Prior knowledge:
Strand content: 25-35%
Distance between the termini: 63 Å
Structural class: alpha+beta
Amino acid sequence: xxxxxxxxxxxxxxxxxxxxxxxxxxxxxxxxxxxxxxxxxxxxxxxxxxxxxxxxxxxxxxxxxxxxxxxxxxxxxxxxxxxxxxxxxxxxxxxxxxxxxxxxxxxxxxxxxxxxxxxxxxxxxxxxxxxxxxxxxxxxxxxxxxxxxxxxxxxxxxxxxxxxxxxxxxxxxxxxxxxxxxxxxxxxxxxxxxxxxxxxxxxxxxxxxxxxxxxxxxxxxxxxxxxxxxxxxxxxxxxxxxxxxxxxxxxxxxxxxxxxxxxxxxxxxxxxxxxxxxxxxxxxxxxxxxxxxxxxxxxxxxxxxxxxxxxxxxxxxxxxxxxxxxxxxxxxxxxxxxxxxxxxxxxxxxxxxxxxxxxxxxxxxxxxxxxxxxxxxxxxxxxxxxxxxxxxxxxxxxxxxxxxxxxxxxxxxxxxxxxxxxxxxxxxxxxxxxxxxxxxxxxxxxxxxxxxxxxxxxxxxxxxxxxxxxxxxxxxxxxxxxxxxxxxxxxxxxxxxxxxxxxxxxxxxxxxxxxxxxxxxxxxxxxxxxxxxxxxxxxxxxxxxxxxxxxxxxxxxxxxxxxxxxxxxxxxxxxxxxxxxxxxxxxxxxxxxxxxxxxxxxxxxxxxxxxxxxxxxxxx
Length: 620
């Protein structure tokens, strides 16, 4: 192994995680990729899309992948409802996994703030906030002379945070006329409207044939421009030297600041790209705004100094049916497709939009009717229950999942902290927050995972002590309220799960997990059978299709999606250019009731038999 200080070097072993097991190295190990042996792999089908209002550095109306709470906090302003929703779906339960990721779409039309720097009273550089919302109006900028001569210094502030960019400016091309003429001037034209018009020209007095006319569409870099200038007329008329930028690259000629009739006979002139350097430095480094060319006529070059000035124009915007529809349309054409959908809104019309969207994309929709009703009296209690069921009936899709009841959260678990934490460390929130917990649990498990009796990360309910009859009434009405765990007498759990559609009298057949497995299997079979579209309808194609379908069902059985299936019930029929497949399976149902009978055997006398049945609410 070598020699160190006259002694043989010792190899120290260490442990590493490799190929699914812990190994001690050094040793030889190999990993075999068996993925190709399983062509019918079952997908996760847990792509959760969250639609909510919020502001931050995320563009509204676009789909954004969120992978953890820390990233979410960095991207959203603390006032955002989307921050609340996202944190709950990522961490919905003390015992169950939450969503490992989700896709967020902000539904309010927030706008950016801007400020335009000028040069000699003409617009020069437009600064645009990197974030969206009214909070961006708290960003300020100051422009002053830089530490190095001929440069600028930008100071950006936001809520006490200061970001300084000094010595903004770039020297790119030194040029001098050394010919026999009595005078020489140089002009650089930059035409932003027609870039092909951009060029460097010279005007020489006292001689002919020595004027330059170098278009930047041909001489695209300063290096190429300098080479052309030095070679002009045999190399004895002009001298030019290019200077690379700080990264060692040549600057594009289109970036040179314009200049008019600049003397290059008396002394060499150093052309600059100060305007472009400001754009490059801001866009690469500044965390609060980007820089670009304003529309219309602009003046290029270093902008004028500006005292501390705040950006303006940013607004949160108000979400409405149009912006929600636009957000749903964006997700409709997104990839991957939405499997689970959370519309984080109390507006019944928005929930109906989400319900329709779920039907179209064949996704599962989580919503909360948002009623924080008056439960103080029996009359108010009955009215609240009626209102919840009425709101649920407006969502008549079997794909919609409605908890109906709001919850209490610790203030540390939500972003919008109001009031005094010393007086009340909890906050009552409406049922859309409950729906966020449900959606997170669903996205953290397989499609066959029931939601029934899964623990919720909350410290209370909107109403205490829902009676058994009230719970049963809500369940039959298509609502899945949370309730306090009646067995362990601590914590709160999901009630017997059901969708809002109650067309089947057997509630066991319309539970969320059963419907989701049916959707998932149908999709997996369709994806596998799609491989046959375009193939020739040769003999035995039916048998190949049958084997493919059985393969999907077998994978589903191993994954615990189905209890059993009969391969003989997979029937494939070819009719002209259409191939039909029928298959059957037994779904995995949820245990909703636990019955027990105790036999007390006394020392004498008759046998006493008791039967204990958990109430409907507890039968989960």
